Structures
1.
Amino acid sequence: MSAAQLRRIISAALLCATALPAWGNEKPLLSASTENSTPGEIRPSPELVRIVLDSVGRGNLEQLDACVAAQRLKHADYASLLRAVRISGGAGHALWFVRPSLNPYCQVLYGAHLFQYFLVDEQPSASRSFYRLVYQNGGDSFDIYGQKSHGLNDIGSTGCVAIECRSSRMSFDGRQYQPVQCSRTRWNDHGQEVTESRRCGADDWKNSQSSGFAPSSDPKADIEKRVIESLNAAAPTASWDHAISIMADITCSGHPSTVVVSQGHDAIWLGIVNAGMRIPGKPIIVNWPISPGNQSAFCSQPVHITTYPHTCQGNDGPLPGCKPAPGCVDISIEDDQCDPMNGYWNNRLGTMSWWRN
């Protein structure tokens, strides 16, 4: 990998955090992102929960039920998996921003770096309030602004892939939200961040990368696709498409990561993508040669991967930089000929560390 390629990969990891256009330096009323709770969050009402369930599709209830059971919640307690923030709209309107909660965490409502979100308009009346879904998407960040069009607040949506982020300012046209200003943020070959305006709809890419998000009937397949895309961008010389993978909390973050092992002719590659990462081009990448007799290599392939409890203990005692964490696990990669390669989250270094017998 050339120095220029490495610089672009490292730069992409920082891109989404900075790719938030100010739209004329207007400060948003609400800003939300994948990895952080949104200020003002509360438990959503039954009406808001119903709208979200209808939007994601009743076919996904099985996966949501699995989340409810895994978190030891009451049966059908979907409200605990969501959070809502009210934005006063005036003139009889209130906008509700609904997103998945971070704790408890449900993978079905997240992706490799994105989160699903919903914007619901509430119109109170003398007897009861009426609710309608006015926007839904999945991406890296979302903003609500004070300026209004046809009675509803303007919004901003940002979505990132490995090489760039795209953002769009949207206004309500009386029927739906339409992009009115679009931009693209990327890093050039000199490592400089470049944000440029672009004509909305100027090419086949979505204005906000994931704008117009439609829930898949197979959320797991969507996550796997994004993981492979991010790994291909970070380490294109490895073959990730037919690799083996598992999902587990190996970074001790409380969120599952996807761990992928690629087996080449002369090397074993491992990629780790945290489900809560903003940028899909920011995985942890490790590779080992296949070289019998080398303590820092594997003896043969194929290899297989397993998890085991995160006890912070190796064969020679406590593991350096390891900190116990509920739900966290370690991984072991074995080729059935040499000693296994064992990996754990090094809290001191903020990355994986490896040891073997």
Note: The chain is about 15% helix and 40% strand.
2.
Amino acid sequence: MEKSSKKSRRRTLRRNRAVVGPVIPPPAVSPAQALPTVRKGRSIDGYSRVLWLYEELKAGAVWNTTTLMAEMGVSESTVRRALANLRVLFKQTVLFDVEANTFYLPDRSKPLPHASSTRGELLMLCLAREALAPYAGTSFDRTLQDLIARQAASLDKRLEGSLADLTANISFRTLGGKARCDPTIFDAVAAAQAARCEILFDYRPQNRKKYFRVRVRPRYLVQQDTSWYLLAHSCKTGKGRAYALSRMAALERTAERFERETGPTLLDALKHSIGIFGGEPERVRIRLRGAAARIVDEQLLHDSQELRECEKDEIELVMHVAVNEELERWILGWAELAEVLEPAKLVEAVADRAEKQAAQYRRPRPEAAVEMVSAV
């Protein structure tokens, strides 16, 4: 058995010498480098697996077929296929050192070939850059920036000009501007959510002037328009609601843990809403005219919406959504171009708000003060 093993090692050495000459000893590996950098059994696609293997061997980490199988949770044939792709598709020379029992790269300075990118992929890279705006200042910001920078660096040099042109010629604007959000609050909430720990914080709702202390179980972080919200269950009442991160203060993480949601989740409750606040769905009919009719005809406000043509330059919007303040504000934003037909309670609520708004402009206003400038 021992003789057979020695013969196998000699055959491996001869095969390696036939490819690139004598076997080059792998570089010394520190214990820190030898530690795996991926979770055992993680599911990744073949391309990502080869890239990860390249980065590991380039860093000098010690890997053989057995340890790679255990680390990636794959079969021996998958490991061999990844090594073959690294050699053939990525033009890398991969050798195996019998004494060190590890694969290694004899030339670790050899870069990977540039991947061919289409103009559509360049546009997606631009979109990814703009999508980072809500994460500015958070712990996710640096990681995402590094990923995008790495992707941009891998582009063919001939396409760098195209990327610059796309960045210069495309602008992303959001109505309402950027919401204020303390990055430390965001990071603390995200960490507590991941650890499933209850949190305490001072909160000021939009219709109150003073803060009050709340204790919740953080479930989901949700971005709505330009603002971040936390969907959480109150530890006191057990009810779920949305909390704006911009209105949180003095946040503390507790040691109390909680279990994952079972059955319908807080995210499911938002399926019937046009925004971040939920509610029971009701049949809503709104008549739109003029510019409002044309603009709404080009948009999808909710998955349940139906558009029916009425008289000239008018349409009827029918949806099954939650009737709440967000819906009222959306309707009032169209002023005289939108008319609620049903339900009755929404008609009354919008009419009441419209009357109060109109009354503000009917009040007598003081004449503008005229500044007299005496002639010199």
Note: The CA atoms of residues 263 and 269 lie 12 Å apart.
3.
Amino acid sequence: MNMRRIAIVVSLMGLMLVLAPSTNFATAGPRQATPPTIGDTDPPQTTIQKHPKKKTDERTAVFKYSSDEPSAEPFECKLDKQGFKPCPRSKPPGRPVYQKTVKAGKHKFEVRATDAAGNTDPTPATFKWTVTG
């Protein structure tokens, strides 16, 4: 026989009646609760607009970069095998530039943005180049 079960929940705000049709509370397993998604959960996408030539004898590397989210600052930069560190603050704000003198050899620059909601780009923008001589 199919019975309706009634659960009565009493809270500080008053009485609430919950109907749960065709549910056998004695044999039903635990329910998986999915928390609601609130706010911005999309990470920003970081891009590099200016970089050295792929092969150059110039030892001063200059990078300009941005994010698809205007409020995405601070940026974190990584050069070669160093860990990510805060990029230098841009002057004027909103025009991020990274400049560093490097030795001859192969190099890799990475940059990632974090938006106002705390989402960090999981796929940093990357550029590899070689300084000759």
Note: The two ends are 87 Å apart (CA to CA).
4.
Amino acid sequence: AIAIQSFYRPHPQRRFHPKYWVLPALVLASLTLSGWSDCLFMGAKKQSTEFFSAAEFNLADEWRSLRNSPNDVVLISPKHNHWVPCLTGSPVWMGYAGWLWSWGINYRAREKDVTDILLGRPNAQLLIEKNSLRYAVLNRADQINGNAINLNFFTEHYKAVLNRNGWYAFDLTSPLNSMSPSSSVR
């Protein structure tokens, strides 16, 4: 409005001439109508602003009762909206990398280790023991660097302490000696 007013400086005797007030009136009307239409359509359309589902809130409650100590380090997939650190306050070994680089943290070595563990590479068990990881909380849909995590690696080697709604929590301090092939996650 200030720009329009400074552009249109009518002569005092001609200030009510239509060419001086039509454009500002049209701009004002179009801005007002577009704002109203946004408000009307936002109310009419169901928008999801849910960051966590009710199932994830229930999982968080159950997780808090399952873990032995609030200081147990948890391995999760590197998602920005993972429910474990956000809803339970559990310390994670490495969270979302987008938050780490913005603080100037050099996370590349740990990211490689997380990738090796989640993909079930040969050095995964050694890395779990070396870094004193207590739990892994994973989902079937989790990915790392575009690859699906190897959930079978965890079911074959570690005891599952939670299995709800496609989420699995494994106790990484309780390795299994053997497990039948039929009990692996498919």
Note: The first strand starts at residue 74 and ends at 76.
